[in-house]
Amino acid sequence: MTIAVSVSSFTLGILFGSAGAAAKLSHSLILNGIAELYTTVVRGVPELLVIYLLFFGGSGMIMAVAGIFGYDGYIEINAFSIGVASVGLISGAYSTEVIRGAVQSVPFGQIEAARACGMSRWLILRRVLVPQTLRYALPGLGNVWQLTLKDTALISVTALAEIMRVAHVAAGSTRQPFLFYTTAAVLYLLLTTVSTVAFEQAERRANRGVRRA
Amino acid sequence: MDWELMWDSLPRLLGAMPLTLLLVFAALFFGAGVAFATALLRLSGNRVAETLTAAYVFVFRGTPLLVQIFLIYYGLGQFEAVRDSFLWPMLREPMWCAILALTLNTGAYTSEILRGAILSVPLGQVEAARACGMSRVLTFRRIVLPVAIRQMLPAYGNEMILMVKASSLASTITMLEITGLARKIISQSFAVFEIFILAGAIYLLLNFLAARFIKYTEWRLTPYLRARA
């Protein structure tokens, strides 16, 4: 469950991040402002608060939107979607900065060269910008992934049965909190260690074309 | 939006700010001590000390803070030995548990920041100090540490902001700091958005101030980087 939540919210986060980075790099002042507001607020407010806000206020928000479209039944969203949405929102704010930095570090000469070859804007994005950005962004995204993984522990407050929640319930019913929380800690350690190794591998693969002195 | 409720709750939420600040400052203060000791041991060259501190840093950076807080608050009470020890009056209080967890957490992160900063001090400066006849302690105190502290400031600023945000987790072990109080007010008034937005704004303000403070300190400590008039 923890892995499912992490992977989904990380993916959502990358989507948010790409959109955010695109908005930040665009020349539109409005888009710039929105993206700036998004990253500042989400990164400046505790994660727990964002989760609480969506958990307690999420269905009300959706119902208000549905009300505009003329539907006024009761809508309940399950804990999984709320968890993914909130952690995705948080991880998206961090990804935005990582992706923006990576896009900016692609040398401008390459884009000029692609343009000189007659590539269209989409083709440049697909063939030149995205592959390079991915390589530059990988270490930063690795950090964001670790953050996301640990933030999922906070979703346990919404009673979603991920590692932390299960540990909490088990600790309560067996009166052996130390044992179960230690187990949870070990599981998280395992996950973070495995993903560190995985990201190192991915980095090595992404950098296979780079010569090192 | 119920503006009146927001306005009325503002003083109450602000009243919870001292507790949040106390948690943050206590954690940063004790955490700095832990980090200093850990970083020194990690660079000491002693095999045992290095392994132990590396394990400490690995464990605390690899697990969520929530797990650490629960482990200390709920977990430690399981053992007779802990309950009989002289520390129990302290470990029974959520306050001390929160401070302990935050301290150990920030200590692990800060020790890595400090270690990186110490390693980044140019060897030439240390050599020069040694050539001037400074002892190891004097070299460390006069040369390595000041340079390292200046070096670690930006990263430490991030850590301070993380701590402000992490202090909200203390609300999960019944502490009534800003987040905890916000939840309490909400359970009485059902005004989810108003109160959480207000609480979020207070955190934003705190983090903004922290960021300004770090910027200012950085500016003060790097006079040589300022444009010469």
Automatic annotation (TrEMBL), chain B:
Keywords: Cell inner membrane, Cell membrane, Membrane, Transmembrane, Transmembrane helix, Transport. Pfam families: BPD_transp_1. It comes from Azospirillum cavernae. It is a multi-pass membrane protein. Belongs to the binding-protein-dependent transport system permease family. HisMQ subfamily. SUPFAM superfamilies: MetI-like. This is ABC transporter permease. It is found in: Cell inner membrane; Cell membrane. The lineage of its organism: Bacteria, Pseudomonadati, Pseudomonadota, Alphaproteobacteria, Rhodospirillales. Residues 13-214 form the ABC transmembrane type-1 domain. Its main location: membrane. GO terms for biological process: amino acid transport.
